[in-house]
Hints:
Layout: H1 12-22, E1 34-41, E2 46-54, E3 57-64, H2 73-87, H3 99-116, E4 136-145, H4 149-160, E5 165-168, E6 185-186, H5 201-210, H6 218-236, H7 245-255, H8 262-270, H9 272-281, E7 288-290, E8 300-302, H10 313-327, E9 331-333, E10 337-344, E11 347-354, E12 360-370, H11 379-384, H12 404-409, E13 418-419, E14 424-432, E15 438-440, H13 444-448, E16 451-453, H14 467-475, E17 482-487, H15 488-493, H16 495-502, E18 507-509, H17 512-519, H18 523-539, E19 558-570, E20 573-575, E21 581-583, E22 589-595, E23 600-601, H19 612-631
Parallel strand pairs: 4-5, 4-12, 5-9, 12-22, 20-23
Antiparallel strand pairs: 1-2, 2-3, 6-8, 7-8, 10-11, 11-12, 13-20, 14-15, 14-19, 16-17, 17-19, 18-19, 21-22
Helix pairs in contact: 2-3, 4-10, 4-19, 6-7, 7-8, 17-18
Amino acid sequence: MKKNVISKVAVAGLFGVAAILGAMPGCSAKSVSGTFAGTAKGNGGDVTVTLTIEKNVITDVKADGPKETVGIGDKALEKLPTEMVAGNTITVDTVSGATITSNAVLEAAKAALEKSGLKASDLAKVTASAGAAEDVTETADIVVVGAGGAGMTAAIVATDAGKKVIVVESQDVSGGNSVRSTGGMNAAKTAYQDSNTFGESAGVEKTLKSAEKYADNADVKALTETVAKQWADYQANPTGYFDSVELMELDTMIGGYAKNDFSLVKTLAENSSPAIDWLASIGAKLTSVGQFGGASVKRIHRPVNDEGKVISVGFYVVPILEKNLTERNVEIMYNTTANKILMQDGKAVGIEASGKDGNKVTINAKSVVMATGGFGANNDMVVAQNHPELKGYITTNAAGAQGQGITMATADDVKAATVDMDQIQLHPTVHVDADKNASLITEGLRGDGAILVNAEGKRFTDEVGTRDVVSAAENEQTGSSAWLIVDQSMVDASAVIQGYIKKGFTVTGADAASLAKEMNVDADALKTTIETWNKAVEAKSDPDFNRTSFNHQLTGNLYALTVQPGIHHTMGGLKINTNTEVLSTDGKVIGGLFAAGEVTGGVHGANRLGGNAVADFTVFGRIAGTAAAEYAK
């Protein structure tokens, strides 16, 4: 969480111009000078805005939100004060993806202005600059389209290879969907896994059994044979924590219903552990290992704060990626929406984009990396993939996930191929507040021991099953929703859960009966459910739903929050090879065009496992940066 964010801007030239304008006919005759503060409720707590006004001109704005989310809310705290000073107004656009914090800044600024005795109309008018914004043409070795996890990773790697890189980002902040990732990163055979005691035998056995239904798939069959031998060898000599690259591959293939491109799955798993090391080398250490849905063993790597509590991976990693770009002097052109890939002799040689003011931005480059993300925020595009049932569905996606990268690359002069476009993932634990804001609730809670119960106070599924299965089970419950339940010890160990509590997402009770009253569910049913679950944990057996992860009994103070399925990930996208080169509709490599992250398809098949998205953008982002740099020689 953000300890302290203060944005302070003083524009001396503006004061002189505005002061003159303030004395002109039509302006308020009342002149006010002084410092005034206002407060409003933000996403994590109070947001305070302090306005310094001199003769009806805002000369300085400070925004303080000590509990706003790093990587999202703090962007609004930094950006909006600058625009208020520049325009001498408290009416500015919100920051995409940071609506709650943005609105708090605006409300706090309004309260501060009211304390001054002024109205918004009393502020001296600032005339807009004459003339339209000029067109811009830049030249670089590599242009990266999208400043999410994949794009920033590719830019860092390419810059370290000695190339000049320019990043364009359609939104006014970086991070995309990556910054919203609450869980962690899957990686196999890491040193951090060995710090755990192995107790997931049932999970491995369940996976080997599940693989039998894909016996006609040669890749799955070969993986099953390899993993079975590895498992037998480990049982004969149980040293360290059991996992393998092949088991991660097998989990990913089974999770994707064997629709995955196995060559991409193999690339993902083989490079996952080195990717953990690379992140650590740039300052992002993911040291806490837990279990997520669809994984046989504890494989998801998560960051912890200074107190040792697990924190959201996106909020942690994205600012570190940004910091690395800043240290390397990589230019990011925000509010710049790419709309065309420039082609010459069948090869990508740059992009065209539109700036915030509608001006044309052209970037000529030797290589183009598409990292624009998926299309989960474009409901029309989602529905168009033969999913009429998802019309109007809530989404966890950032506003920029519009699918524009796919549209650009499939244009007639580029002719990129796509794959798995109809594979849309719902995430089963999305909390929707009274204002209809959707918040992703980390899957790690279920992996650590949380349970799901319905409106009748009963469990209804294996909570750590794959996301599609859990979402489908939820949709069959009363209200197509559920309650997620954790206990005090889980709260104490997780800054993420503490954040949910501070935001008012949860209800609580000292025991099952008191919690049931707050949830408005049958007390006897909930008490029986929790007692039965605790016995299952003790016996390490769940005869009702065949859950195989038993990390935690629920005791002491209990907490619950409502969750429901929401559009989360689009598994389909541009077709790439293992070198992240984009393939054309005739199966050939499109020279100079690379892609990484959710804009691509194939790696996840019909369903993505939790923790594989961060692995995806890190592994393939690194490959794209290296490949684009090599091509740009």
